[in-house]
Amino acid sequence: MVDLTDDQRADLEGRYCGRLPLRERNRVQVLLRSDRGDTGEEVADALGVGVATVAAARGRFAAARLEAAR
User: Fold this and answer.
1) pTM, two decimal places
2) CA distance 16 to 24
């Protein structure tokens, strides 16, 4: 599960509307869909990626938030 702030959500939605490589586009969608409450399996199926890819993107997001809090 990902819990985005309003600012984070707006930033990701803005990025998604821009030109992004597919890998980055998928990462943005992983975070947005996870914030909505979709399971890892639901996100993976919707994006055509593996559950491990979803878990990795969520993990990177969690680690970055921890780094920012230090």
Assistant:
1) 0.86
2) 9
- Nearest residue to 48 via CA among 65, 66, 23, 68: 23
pLDDT tens digits, 18-59: 888 999 999 999 999 999 999 999 999 999 999 999 999 999
CA distance 25 to 19: 9
Question: Whole-angstrom distance between the N-terminal and C-terminal Cα of the chain?
Answer: 22
What burial class does residue 3 get, using C-beta atoms within 10 Å of its C-beta: 0-12 exposed, 13-18 middle, 19+ buried? Answer: exposed
The string of DSSP letters for 13-65 reads HHHHHS---HHHHHHHHHHHHHHHT--HHHHHHHHT--HHHHHHHHHHHHHHH
